[in-house]
Amino acid sequence: xxxxxxxxxxxxxVIERDGRFLLxxxxxxxxxxxxxxxxxxxxxxxxAQGCVRETLEETAHLLEPxxxxxxxxxxxxxxxxxxxxxxxxxxxxxxxxxxxxxDGRTLDTGIVxxxxxxxxxxxxxxxxxxxPLVLQCMEDYLRGQRFPLSMVYSDPSLQxxxxxxxxx
Length: 168
Prior knowledge:
Pfam families: NUDIX. One of its GO terms (molecular function) is hydrolase activity. InterPro entries: NUDIX_hydrolase-like_dom_sf (IPR015797), NUDIX_hydrolase_dom (IPR000086), NudJ (IPR033713). It comes from Rhodoferax potami. By secondary structure, this protein is α+β, with helices and mostly antiparallel strands. The chain has one domain (8-167): Nucleoside Triphosphate Pyrophosphohydrolase (Alpha-Beta Complex), CATH 3.90.79. Helices cover 21% and strands 40% of the residues. Strands 5-1-7-6 form a four-stranded mixed β-sheet, sandwiched between helices. The longest helix has 13 residues, at 47-59.
């Protein structure tokens, strides 16, 4: 029997304010990289809820999602001494608004700092992007690509995810 393919589900925030985009600078196995506030979807949460959580953890800003920018697929292959890692990501990218950073809130492990960059600065730093989706999501946002939040339906059964019940 062959192993079933299971892509990793991630969420990302595309946050623009005054012509600048909120990115994080983070430590990765490939070195210091730039990324949207983003991360893996946790059991029991909708993609929009996961995006709010990840944005808060990585930037200390509370996100209010307003639209889905898009759903993206990408593949990442990394070779290391222990073998090859081949991961396909499904990314739900949301846009929205944020208030000021919450004073005293510590950023997630691995996050060095947050940055507000112009589109030109984001484009000029592609070699430092964690993934090609950083630029793609921004460009789609700048083109005005928006879908209603209702495009992503989360069934109430998610609230009963076994992993969440064990944490309670």
